[in-house]
């Protein structure tokens, strides 16, 4: 008996087949092999074609079925993880009316800020736990105002995972976690937030019906089965945004537990057992995968858009030609902690929530032409990313989170010893590295939703911890470098 998980990212679509009894991943692959294109028609915009995600999913499915050699009929459930906050709008024929406006697109910032001011901070934060911000509802408001000829043809709006689930099953639905990504879940009423759709002039009927996160959400149609090589009737039993799903993948479900990722963007995501929010709405609050009317489980998230994308930019533009990421890390390690005074602000990938939706760009500070070289710049970039994490973590702690241990997958920036050591040492937290990823987590989530596992502890009993990273015995140079970084940031924000 097997489980199939998909992770619909902005860089690629990944698939994984997991043996349910052992939790072992028997096959995994991703497509495309180079990063998926993102259209940036104007500064701050970011769009992708939903049909491309489906094409990548077909390639990934074919690969894992071939690699595993299993009978598709032995796959008993499918789970879906996906890039959060994207807007997929379709007409009555369920055809996208425009490209998807994805998570890192910042065009809707003014719409969310205006709604926050008009509706009132107390009302928005009390019901949404956030400002409407640059989230999916505000992106739809942008379409309504700027593309009225497109807006009038919209029948339904979906998140990227909702779209993929529809392509698999022919069924339309979302869940409370998903609606909280739109910024359309009212945590006080436990219903869709009609006050915000009314404010934006959007008919609530454009939203899909609401299902539980762990539940049967449709079955693979004959057409999808033929296209993908799956068995008709296979149930889709779980879906969640990539960051709640990453927390699930690391068995982070209960208050005080924290997960982190550091891919294109970077996230620290912790579970709060009480309803709380930052009065300045610099960190995000979402319904976690196990949040219910009777069990409060809020995912508190700080997100930094400029994470792996900065590191890849450094590789293309600063590092020697042809160097690998491992080689780049070795070169960066030639510089001391604190990069001999070089400081990098990693905010070059759009407006940052942690900066109250300011877009200040990436900048380098303290470069001395007689002292510094590539190694200092490369190390400073990684340190700057970590310090931006720490800045958000301090806000999380101010609203009741306690961060003493961070769970992370052994991937992306967490492959870098500099990144890991700096994060542990500046935060004082121990980092536990696990052998898992979003697609494997989605497969196990499907197992929970299908009742194959009794609970999350059974589903993740096989989770393998690879390493523990502890703070340096002498944290002083890390803390001094962070204090310098924070002073520069505060001056930039004046």
What would your notes on this structure say?
The protein has 494 residues and is α+β, with helices and mostly antiparallel strands. It contains 17 helices and 20 strands. A hairpin with a 5-residue loop joins strand 2 (13-19) and strand 3. Helix 10 (242-249) crosses helix 15 (438-449) and helix 12 (325-332) packs across helix 13 (374-398).
Count of discrete alpha- or pi-helical segments spanning 4 or more residues? 17
Strand content: 15-25%
What does the largest sheet look like?
7 strands, mixed
Distance between the termini: 58 Å
Q: What strand line-up does the widest sheet have?
A: 14-15-13-12-18-19-20
- What is the radius of gyration? 22 Å
Task: Label this structure with key terms.
single chain; 494 residues; alpha+beta; five-stranded mixed sheet
Short description, anyone?
With 494 residues, the chain is of the alpha+beta class. It has helices at 50-68, 109-119, 121-128, 136-146, 148-151, 160-169, 176-182, 194-200, 222-228, 242-249, 308-317, 325-332, 374-398, 417-427, 438-449, 456-459, 476-492, and strands at residues 2-8, 13-19, 25-31, 47-48, 75-82, 88-90, 100-101, 156-158, 185-186, 191-192, 236-241, 258-262, 266-272, 284-287, 298-304, 343-347, 361-365, 405-409, 430-434, 465-469. Helix 10 packs across helix 15 (438-449).
